[in-house]
Structure formats: structure tokens, C-alpha cells
């Protein structure tokens, strides 16, 4: 009997969230409803432990505000007024509109906008890619998360995989660089603690003492966007003191001599001026790194959400090469996604596209795409993402979504801030109602999800929805009639990826989690896919792109370092950093009471010196603002950062959804709590990445705004 047909029991599942850990779950079901979510103790990497967010996932899946049926807008755009319609009506209306737009303006007038609200490959990057490809729609560049850093890693290391989780257990020095793993990758934090029990020192390098920093043996605060300089300063000392592994470098790297010369300019004193890290600490860090083996560097997402983010990751990931860590049981991690890379051609079927040269739109540029791009975007289909909250330049994104001549469809579980702007809203199933395949960008297990509960209301999966739309559009290809099992089989069959050896649908069905075959990793250093086949300390490719071929510190376009402090943006002298919080997953859960009450309200951490200079007291209502917008917050006066940096964690919706007695905050000044009202859509140096944290603001007490 299918799991959906059994009213009660405990069933295996996979966490669908955009989190490296990709936990094995157990869903406890009573009378057809999930009542409890626990960790699956049999999952070898996550071993039964899950985070607080997902322990309350039943509240989200069975939330009273889940969308239950399709709706059509009945009030002004953005008003959130809708009337119920049938799936038949919705699908034929969308198809008719898309056909009309294609005929009149060409299919590139339609833009799909999605991200990994559900990491299942069929629903996140399967049938949708086939559909929009076949339609000939504009392509989306999926750049909002880690693409600058991943590009920086790949220019240096070639292959997009690093240390395995198990390797990190043996580290004697564990560096978390620009990440907050206690909140964002809790199983890696568990391994870090085990390494510490075995004698490791934990060092956290960050712009604020986040939850991970509070557990560090040594927390090193620095100015945002200056990591490249810090890493170069460390290299300076490593070369200077003879702490590099010259034998390893000769065999496995190119550009050592050029780099040795180049880093002479990054003396501890100069590096200290740029980064805000005292020269003595830079020397101490370098000695610690050069003399401790094995060592591990966990490279987070924080340092790469910057104008210079690709270079920052590239530079940090040169460090294990300099000390030969890759041959000593140590190394670094940025993402392990490449070990599990699937057969994308079979999954996404780019061959269905009639116009392979169609334009590509960087998702960080959504505001421009909707407001200034020509030829215009006239149809927008959003799913698995909440761009009104998560995309930069939020005010302009909303202005774009308000366009009367833009036809917007949003496929969602909730009436998010984005869905409120839709012309048609479609209800989406939760991942526990679907069949899907999950890989992890941290551990080495592939997992299968099969439906545990029936679809809530009239909701449909992305997979199913795009099949329906394809049918309505008259796309006759077999690719739109395939079922989930057949697509999973095709995706797993990737002759280019030896790590997938032995991972089959049958095995997944039987065992739920199947390990990758990690034997090829023994050849890691011999299999690097850089042009030279070696670790590229010097990169000809970067040079040909007009970037410095050697790791080089370039100051932020918007921001400051200790050398240039105050030169740029004198009206906005504070750097504003808005990383994830502990209890939301990006903007997911921001509408669920339990998670809201755990996070209470959006805070602005501000240093006592900066608070005093502005007459701001702890607990006071403040506004952070710049030319792009304003964000209302509550001041938390704290010295967790260096002076000059303010931090606000968490991506909050504009206002709590539909809560009794609460109105949506007005779209004008004040009352808004979108961090992204402040952030810029500039593109990072590499990979088309986002630059969320290269943002400057000024802060004032909230009551000052009425006179401003
Ligand atoms: N609880 C929770 N978990 C999550 C998420 C969530 O929203 N909530 N989001 C998920 C997603 S999509 C991702 S991509 C990952 C991200 O998780 P992580 O890789 O941990 O990265 P972030 O949390 O974005 O940022 C980490 C840290 O970078 C710091 N930082 C900012 N600028 C700089 C800088 O210039 N230099 C340095 N050294 N540090 C800097 C921030 O202060 C922050 O503490 O987490 C995933 N897991
Ligand atoms: N200021 C600032 N902005 C940031 C970041 C930051 O640190 N600071 N982090 C950035 C990063 S790293 C990322 S990854 C992005 C994340 O941005 P998003 O990918 O937009 O993440 P979420 O906000 O979680 O929104 C996911 C949405 O997908 C919906 N969803 C879930 N499952 C399904 C499904 O199966 N089908 C459909 N149709 N919908 C589904 C959820 O209900 C949710 O509303 O945000 C970025 N934005
Ligand atoms: S969000 Fe991450 S840590 Fe939490 S259950 Fe999901 S995969 Fe595990
Ligand atoms: Mo992300």
C-alpha cells in the first residue's frame, strides 16, 4: 500500500530545504496528517538530528493559511485580493496568455523566476526547465546564492567539490570563514565540536560574532569585504616564515613564484589597516595555520556576497594548497555539489529549446529586468522563490511587480509577499506530497522522497503543473508525458560522473539513502579540471576575463576598508550586513507563528560607538536607510562587530500574514522591514553573483524620519 493511503504511521522523508545538510527525516502521521517530524537515525550523515526549524515543519505543512486552490486577482495589483477559480480555468488562462505574448512579442518576453524553496531536482530544475525551454522563454541565471564563490573556487581548484564531512573530524585546526554553521549547517557544527574534543582549535573569521563565533576558541572580526586582504596577509607570513609546502606546490600548483612575489606587498601592517585585524593577530593566525596539520577551512557564503566575493573565495581556497593540506588529510570546503552532479541534459532537456541563443537574465537583476530591460518582460512565472523579499533592491522589484502590463503567475504554498502581486496564484504541494530526488551539497548520500500525505487542497507539484501547462500549450513531446520515476532514472544516469556509480532508482527505493562511490576522490589532485590540471594560484582564464590573474584585494565598490574608510559613500558611513537568522530558512517560515515568536522581530545590531554618535539607545526603534530604501528595525547595541558595521539577521516578510488586528505596513517610508530594500543589485566580480553584503547605510532613530 502507498504511504499516502496509510492514515497513520512513521514514514521516511528528506528535508527539502536549501540547506547543505539534506537531512533524512521521519514523518509521524496520524489520521492522514503529519503531527511530528523527527530525524531519521538511519541516515548515515545526519544521524537522526534535525534543526529546530524543521522539527516544527508539521505546522507549516498543515498551516491554516496554506493555499488550497487556484485564484485570480480581483483587486488592484499587490492588494492580495483574489477569487477562487478552477485549475482548468487557471491553466487555460495562463496558456492563452503565454501564447498571445509569444505571438505578439516573442517567447523571450516571458521569464521564469525560481530558486530552491524545494531542493528536489524534479521540482526545482526538471519539468520547469523543459517547459520554459520548449516555450523559448528568456533564460534565468541562478546566481542569487553562491555563484560568485563557486566560480572563485572553480577558477582555482577546477572541480566543484572539497573535503568530505568525515575528513573534517580529524582536523586539528578548524576555521569557519564567513559562515554560521551552528545555524546554517548544524551537522557540520557537530563534527566541528567532535574535532574540538579531539584537540582541534576552532577559529571563526566573520564580520560579527554570530552563533558559531560565540563557540570559537578564537573569534576574529574583520571589516566586510576584506577577506581577500586577510588571506593575502596570511600568505605573506607563510612564505616569509618558510611555512609553505614547496614540494606539494611544485607538484600540484601553478603560479607559486608569481604569488610569492605578489604577496610581499601584503605586510601584516598594511593588511591590518585594510581588514581591521591587528597585525599581531594576522601573524598569529598565519603561524597557527602554517604549523597545524591537518587543518580544515569551512568557507561560508558570507564572504562571497560581495563585489569582490569571487576573488575572496578564490584567495581563501589557495591557503590549503600553500600548506599542502590536500595531501595531509586536511583541505577546505565551499560546496560538495559536484560530487553528485546529475545528467542535466536528460533532466532538463535543453534540446527542446527552439532558440538556444535566447537571452539570459541574471536573477539578481530582477528589478532592472522588470523596469528597464528591453525588449520588455511581459510574462513572469515565479515558483520556489519569494523575490519580493529575497531579491536585492526590493522597492524596485515591487515597483516592477506592480506593472499593469505584466502578467504574473506565482506557484506557492502561501500567499507570500510575491504572490500578492500575482494575476494568477497556483497552490503548490509541499515536498512531503511529492516524489523527488535529493542530492546534498555537503554530504555524500543521494535520497528519494515518495509522497507521505496526499496533496493538501487542490495543490499540485511543480512537476505536475508544468506537465499540465505543456499539454495546454500543445507541446506534444514525450518529455512532457514522462513520470517521476522515469525522470529520476534519466537524471541518475550520468556517464560523466563516476561518483554516481551504483546509485540507482531500485537501490534508492529499497534503502532511501544511497552513498556516492567516493573511490575517484583518491585521485582528487590528479583529476582537477582547471586548464592546467593543477591548482591555479595564477589563472590565465581570469586574466583573459580582465580580472587579476593572481589573488588580489580589490576594495568594494560600495563599502570601505580601513585604508579607504570614509572615502566613498560619505552619506552612508555604515556597512549593512543581512545574513540568515537561526529560525527562518531564507524567507521560509517567516509566516509561521512558532518561528516568528522565536525570532521576535528584526533587530539591527549596532556598535556602542556608532549608536552613541547617533543618539541611539539599546531597544530603540531605528531606521537604516540609503538611496535605495529604508528598513525599520529595533536597535540592539552590542560590540559583536567592529565599529562601522551594522548587522540585521533574517529575511522578514513585509508584515505578518493576515494576523488579526495587524495591517500590512505601508509601502512608503517607515514600517517596512525588508533588509533587501537597502541592498544593491550590482553583480559580483565572478559568476554573476549577488552582492547583498556590499551595502552602506546611515541609521537614525525612527522618530527622526518624520522630519527627514
Ligand atoms: N537557519 C538557517 N539556515 C540556513 C539558511 C537560513 O536562512 N537560515 N539559508 C541557507 C542558505 S540558502 C545558505 S546559502 C546557507 C548560508 O549559510 P552560510 O554559509 O553560513 O552563510 P551566511 O549565513 O549567508 O553568512 C555567514 C556569515 O557571513 C558573514 N559575513 C558577511 N560578510 C562577510 C565578510 O565580508 N567576510 C566574512 N568573513 N564574513 C562575512 C555574516 O556575518 C554571517 O555570519 O545557509 C543555509 N541554511
Ligand atoms: N539580504 C539578503 N538577501 C538574501 C540572502 C541574504 O543572506 N541576505 N540570501 C540569499 C540566498 S543565499 C538565497 S539562496 C536566496 C533564497 O531565496 P528563495 O529561494 O526565494 O528562498 P525562500 O525565501 O525560502 O523562498 C522559497 C519559496 O518557495 C516556496 N516553495 C517551497 N517549496 C515549493 C515547491 O515545491 N513549489 C513551489 N512552487 N514553491 C515552493 C516556499 O513556500 C517559499 O516561499 O535569498 C537570497 N537573499
Ligand atoms: S534545514 Fe537543514 S538541518 Fe534543518 S532539517 Fe533541513 S537539512 Fe536538516
Ligand atoms: Mo543560499
Question: Could you explain how this protein is built, in words?
Answer:
Residues 8-65 form the 4Fe-4S Mo/W bis-MGD-type domain. Belongs to the prokaryotic molybdopterin-containing oxidoreductase family. It comes from Saccharibacillus alkalitolerans. Keywords: Iron, Iron-sulfur, Metal-binding, Molybdenum, Oxidoreductase. This is Molybdopterin oxidoreductase family protein. The protein has 708 residues and is an alpha/beta fold. It folds into three domains: 71-137 and 343-438 and 445-515, Rossmann fold (3-Layer(aba) Sandwich); 148-337 and 528-544, Dimethylsulfoxide Reductase, domain 2; 560-704, Barwin-like endoglucanases (Beta Barrel), CATH 2.40.40.20. It is 29% helix and 17% strand. It has 26 helices and 27 strands. The strands form seven sheets. It has a six-stranded mixed sheet with strand order 5-4-17-16-15-6, covered by helices on one side. The protein has a six-stranded mixed sheet with strand order 23-25-24-27-22-26. A five-stranded parallel sheet has the order 10-9-8-12-13, sandwiched between helices. α10 runs parallel beside α15 and α13 crosses α14 (279-291). The protein is globular. It starts with 8 loop residues before the first strand and ends in a 7-residue tail after the last strand. The model is unreliable at 656-671 (pLDDT under 50). The structure holds ligand MGD (2 copies), iron/sulfur cluster and molybdenum atom.
Amino acid at each position: 500500500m502507498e504511504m499516502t493511503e496509510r492514515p497513520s504511521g512513521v514514514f521516511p522523508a528528506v528535508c527539502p530545504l536549501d540547506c547543505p545538510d539534506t537531512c533524512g527525516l521521519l514523518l509521524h502521521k496520524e489520521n492522514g496528517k503529519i503531527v511530528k517530524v523527527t530525524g531519521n537515525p538511519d541516515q548515515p550523515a545526519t544521524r537522526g538530528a534535525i534543526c529546530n526549524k524543521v522539527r516544527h515543519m508539521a505546522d507549516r505543512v498543515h498551516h491554516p493559511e496554506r493555499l488550497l486552490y487556484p485564484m485570480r486577482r480581483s483587486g488592484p495589483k499587490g492588494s492580495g485580493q483574489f477569487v477562487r477559480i478552477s485549475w482548468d480555468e487557471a491553466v487555460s488562462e495562463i496558456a492563452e496568455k503565454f501564447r498571445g505574448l509569444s505571438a505578439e512579442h516573442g517567447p523571450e518576453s516571458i521569464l521564469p523566476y525560481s530558486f530552491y524553496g524545494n531542493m528536489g531536482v524534479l521540482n526545482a530544475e526538471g519539468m520547469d526547465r523543459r517547459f520554459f525551454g520548449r516555450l523559448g522563454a528568456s533564460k534565468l541565471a541562478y546566481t542569487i546564492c553562491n555563484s560568485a564563490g563557486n566560480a572563485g573556487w572553480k577558477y582555482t581548484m577546477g572541480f566543484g567539490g572539497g573535503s568530505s564531512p568525515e575528513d573534517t573530524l580529524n582536523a586539528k585546526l578548524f576555521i569557519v570563514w564567513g559562515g554560521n554553521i551552528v545555524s546554517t549547517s548544524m551537522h557540520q557544527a557537530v563534527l566541528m565540536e567532535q574535532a574540538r574534543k579531539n584537540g582541534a582549535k576552532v577559529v571563526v573569521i566573520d564580520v560579527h560574532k554570530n552563533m558559531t563565533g560565540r563557540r570559537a576558541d578564537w573569534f576574529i572580526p574583520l571589516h566586510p569585504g576584506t577577506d581577500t586582504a586577510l588571506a593575502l596577509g596570511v600568505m605573506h607570513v607563510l612564505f616569509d616564515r618558510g611555512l609553505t609546502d614547496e614540494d606539494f606546490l611544485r607538484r600540484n600548483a601553478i603560479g607559486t613564484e608569481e604569488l610569492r612575489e605578489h604577496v610581499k606587498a601584503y605586510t601584516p601592517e598594511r593588511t591590518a589597516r585594510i581588514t581591521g585585524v591587528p597585525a599581531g593577530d594576522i601573524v598569529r593566525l598565519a603561524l597557527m595555520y602554517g604549523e597545524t596539520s591537518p587543518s580544515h577551512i569551512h568557507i561560508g557564503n558570507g564572504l562571497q556576497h560581495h563585489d569582490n566575493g569571487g576573488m575572496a573565495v578564490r584567495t581563501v581556497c589557495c591557503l590549503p594548497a600553500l600548506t599542502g593540506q590536500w595531501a595531509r588529510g586536511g583541505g577546505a570546503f565551499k560546496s560538495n555539489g559536484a560530487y553528485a552532479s546529475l545528467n542535466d541534459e536528460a533532466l532538463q532537456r535543453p534540446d527542446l529549446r527552439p532558440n538556444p541563443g535566447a537571452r539570459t537574465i541574471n536573477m539578481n537583476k530582477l528589478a532592472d529586468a522588470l523596469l528597464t530591460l528591453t525588449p520588455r518582460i511581459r510574462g513572469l512565472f515565479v515558483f520556489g522563490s519569494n523575490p519580493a523579499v529575497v531579491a536585492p533592491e526590493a522597492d524596485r522589484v515591487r515597483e516592477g511587480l506592480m506593472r499593469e502590463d505584466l502578467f504574473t503567475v506565482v506557484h506557492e504554498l502561501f500567499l507570500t509577499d510575491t504572490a500578492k502581486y500575482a494575476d494568477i496564484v497556483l497552490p503548490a504541494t509541499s515536498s512531503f506530497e511529492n516524489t523527488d530526488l535529493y542530492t546534498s551539497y555537503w554530504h555524500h548520500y543521494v535520497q528519494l522522497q515518495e509522497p507521505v500525505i496526499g496533496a493538501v487542497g487542490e495543490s499540485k507539484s511543480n512537476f505536475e503543473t508544468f506537465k499540465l501547462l505543456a499539454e495546454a500549450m500543445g507541446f506534444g513531446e514525450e518529455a512532457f508525458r514522462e513520470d517521476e520515476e522515469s525522470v529520476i532514472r534519466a537524471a541518475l544516469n550520468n556517464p560523466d560522473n563516476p561518483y554516481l556509480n551504483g546509485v540507482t532508482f531500485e537501490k534508492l527505493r529499497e534503502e532511501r539513502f544511497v552513498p556516492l562511490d567516493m573511490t575517484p576522490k583518491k585521485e582528487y589532485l590528479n583529476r582537477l579540471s582547471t586548464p592546467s590540471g593543477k591548482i591555479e594560484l595564477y589563472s590565465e582564464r581570469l586574466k583573459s576575463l580582465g580580472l587579476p590573474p593572481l589573488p588580489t584585494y580589490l576594495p568594494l565598490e560600495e563599502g570601505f576598508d580601513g585604508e579607504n574608510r570614509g572615502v566613498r559613500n560619505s552619506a552612508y558611513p555604515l556597512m549593512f550586513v543581512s545574513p540568515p537568522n537561526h529560525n527562518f530558512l531564507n524567507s521560509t517560515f517567516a509566516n509561521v507563528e512558532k518561528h516568528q515568536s522565536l525570532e521576535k522581530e528584526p533587530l539591527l545590531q549596532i556598535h556602542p560607538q556608532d549608536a552613541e554618535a547617533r543618539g541611539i539607545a539599546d531597544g530603540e526603534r531605528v531606521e537604516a536607510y540609503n538611496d535605495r530604501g529604508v528598513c525599520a528595525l529595533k536597535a540592539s547595541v552590542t560590540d559583536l562587530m567592529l565599529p562601522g558595521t551594522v548587522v540585521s539577521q533574517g529575511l522578514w516578510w513585509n508584515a505578518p500574514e493576515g494576523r488579526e488586528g495587524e495591517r500590512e505596513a505601508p509601502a512608503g517610508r517607515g514600517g517596512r522591514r525588508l533588509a533587501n530594500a537597502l541592498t544593491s543589485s550590482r553583480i559580483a566580480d565572478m559568476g554573476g553573483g549577488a552582492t547583498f553584503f556590499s551595502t552602506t547605510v546611515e541609521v537614525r532613530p525612527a522618530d527622526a524620519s518624520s522630519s527627514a
